[in-house]
Every structure is written in C-alpha cells, then in structure tokens.
Write a structure and sequence with these properties.
- The protein has helices spanning 16-22, 49-60, 91-103, 148-160, 218-271, 281-296, 302-316, 341-355; strands at residues 29-32, 37-43, 71-80, 83-90, 110-113, 124-130, 133-138, 143-147, 168-172, 186-190, 321-328, 331-338, 358-367, 370-378.
- The protein is rod-shaped.
- A hairpin with a 2-residue loop joins strand 11 (321-328) and strand 12.
- The chain is built from 8 helices and 14 strands.
- The strands form 4 sheets. It has a 5-stranded mixed beta sheet with strand order 8-7-6-9-10. Strands 11-12-14-13 form a 4-stranded antiparallel beta sheet.
- 17% of the residues are buried.
- With 381 residues, the chain is α+β, with helices and mostly antiparallel strands.
- The termini are far apart.
Length: 381
C-alpha cells in the first residue's frame, strides 16, 4: 500500500465459474466470517509441537458447545511463556466451503478469519462497520464479530480489562457506533473502506492459517518439494561418495591383509620347511613354537618368545611387508618395507611393549612413498 487506505490488488465479485479463470495464476486466500471462528489463547506445558497439538482440544473442551471431534484446532505461535494463540473452527462448515472450491478447480493456499485482516496496532482496538455487524481486532491474535446492539457492552469490558492495555480505538465506518460510550482513550475514525480485503493484513496472521492439511493442493506440495531437490541431490551424492570411500578402504585393507598373510606363510615355510600344508598360519606357528619349547625344555625366551609375541604385531602394522627375518644368539634382525617413518616408530614402540625387548632401527630409507628399514630386536636379559 502507498498509504493507509489504498489497495494494491484487484477485488472482483462473481460466481465461482467466472472467478476460476481469474485465479489461475495466483494462490487464493479464503476469508471466512469471524462468527465461525473462535480465536483465543491457551496455557499448554511442554515444548513438543506434536504433543501440544494432541493436548490442545482437551484444554479447550470446556469452552466449546460442540464435540471436539467436530472441530479443527489450529495451534498458533507462542505469545508468552507456555501460552499459545489458537483458533477453532467447525469441520463441517470449513470442509463444505473448501470442497466446493476444490471441485470448481480453486485451491486456496490459506484460510483466515476476517477479523485478523484488520490493521494491527499495539495497545489499540480496531473496528470496522459491515452493515449491522461490527468486526473487531484487538491484540496480534485476537478478534471477533458482533452486532451493533452488543458492541458497547463488549468494548466496555475490553477497556475495563487491564491485561488488554487499550489506549486507542480506531474505527472504520460512516457512523460513530460508540457515540454513547464514555471513551477514556484516544478515538480515531476513518471513512468506510471499499472492502475489508483492501486492508493489508499483518504478516504474523500467516502463522494462524486455518487451512486443513487434507486440503493442501498437491501441486503446491510438489512445488515445495522441488525447492528441496538440489539439497536432497547433494545429500545423496555425499552418501554415495562416503560409501564409495568406505568400500575402497575395505578392499585396500583386504589386499593388505592378503599380502601380510602371504608374508607370514613365507616366514613360516622358511622356519619350518618340513610343513607341507598351511591352513591357519598363526595357529600352526604357535603349535610349532610350542613343540620347539617343549623339545628344548627352555622357558619362553629367545627365538620362540620373539616369534610368538612379535608375529601379531608385525601382522597388524599398516602397509608392512616382511623381506627377511634372521635370529642368532638372542637377537632377531628383521628386514621390512613399511608405509612411513611414523608407522616404523609405532612398530618399534609396540615391539618394546610386547616383550620388554631392546629394539633398534638400524637403517631406514624412503623411496616411492615407502620406507625400507632393518630392525634389530634383542632380549633385555
């Protein structure tokens, strides 16, 4: 609007069949009489929206004449701590209007009571004259309609209510309907507007949309879903990439495991050339070492102890390839290839912890993103 009373859109009247063509490229707003809607507030504990909606009908049950099963309950925004704006409308009434419009190919995107389309001002009552009816809005989410005869009594009650803090009355109409009311507040009168719709409603009204979910037009839902398609596509792409990385890592680890297994088998065959069949190299290695200990009669020391304790550590070292292993007089020399120097240092620390040995890196050289090294493991005794 360019000023307080100038309309920015077109207002047309006529049968539904004629209006259908006019509404083809816009989303209509359905305005229903305020007598058909109860707008109030309710105190509800908790924060979960789904549970608040479940509790809402029972919190208002005592204020309604009809059964709660026959009503639509719309939970609006929170107005203060644990208090919410709400609206209640008869199902049969609203369904009949929306069904008739849908059958004619008209699909409103929102439904509002006419009282909330009046201009809103803090600490003010806004009234509009509509033949023998007076439509009233007070507060951001409060409004009603009544006949002229009852208006002064209702307005007096609102003025006496200290919680409303009314400091001004704004009236749109040709006659002063509050002429007999003692007005202790500021009074402002304007010419009768051409139509209520010419008064722009406050954006906050959109939070109290009375349109039931089952009457939301499918094309509108599809349009909203399409807005999320780019984000959904990015999410799917991210998931696919993550899965691909995990699958690649899995196969790489399996490949390394096969290489380590082959290295262990090679060492086993070198240590026990008489063995013909290998089923589980780790188990067979332990069995052979146990046999050697039993034959030698010695405690777990020397070569057997080193092999038993070091084999699992060597197997778990990332990217490790054994090239040779020699044992002599309490000392084991290991030639190996490993991923990097950090992994080599970690291997050294793990071997020290495993057997309380003295472990020395005798040589280490990097080439082609690999480290060639020789480790010497000595018994501390």
């Amino acid at each position: 609007m360019t000023d307080e009373h100038e309309t920015t859109g077109k207002v047309k009247q006529g049968p539904i069949s004629v209006l259908k063509g006019e509404l083809a490229d816009v989303e209509p707003v359905l305005i229903i009489p305020s007598e058909q809607v109860l707008i109030t507030s309710v105190h509800l504990p908790g924060k979960n929206p789904a549970r608040l909606r479940q509790a809402l009908p029972y919190a208002l049950e005592d204020q309604l004449i009809s059964d709660i099963e026959n009503q639509y309950f719309i939970l609006g925004p929170k107005t203060r701590e644990k208090t919410y704006a709400v609206a209640v409308v008869e199902k049969a009434y609203l369904d009949s209007i929306l069904t008739a419009l849908n059958e004619a190919g008209i699909y409103p995107g929102s439904v509002f009571p006419e009282s909330l389309l009046l201009p809103f001002s803090e600490s003010s009552l806004t009234l509009i004259e509509d033949n023998n009816r007076i439509i009233v809005r007070y507060g951001l989410y409060n409004g009603f309609a009544c006949d002229r005869d009852n208006l002064e009594l209702i307005i007096k009650s609102l003025l006496d209510d200290e919680s409303q803090d009314v400091k001004k009355i704004i009236f749109y109409g040709a006659t002063d309907v509050l002429s007999e009311l003692e007005r202790p507040v500021e009074y402002e009168q304007h010419d009768f507007p051409r139509t209520i719709i010419s008064l722009l409603y406050h954006d906050s009204v959109k939070e109290l949309n009375l349109l039931p979910r089952q009457f939301v037009h499918r094309e509108k839902l599809d349009k909203k879903l399409k807005q999320w398609l780019p984000a959904a596509a990015m999410l799917v792409a991210w998931i696919v990439i993550q899965l691909s990385v995990q699958v690649y890592d899995y196969y790489q680890l399996k490949k390394q495991d096969r290489v380590l297994q082959a290295s262990l088998e090679k060492i086993y065959r070198q240590a026990f050339p008489e063995s013909k069949r290998i089923v589980n190299v780790e188990v067979q290695m332990r069995q052979k070492l146990k046999e050697l200990r039993e034959k030698s009669g010695r405690a777990q020391s020397g070569f057997t102890e080193m092999m038993v304790k070091s084999a699992p550590i060597l197997k778990k070292a990332p990217g490790l390839k054994l090239q040779s292993l020699r044992y002599h007089d309490g000392r084991m020399d290991i030639d190996l290839e490993i991923r990097d120097l950090q992994s080599l240092e970690q291997l050294k620390e793990n071997l020290i912890k495993a057997g309380n040995w003295e472990v020395e890196i005798q040589s280490a050289s990097s080439a082609e993103n690999k480290v060639q090294s020789r480790l010497q493991v000595r018994s501390s005794s």
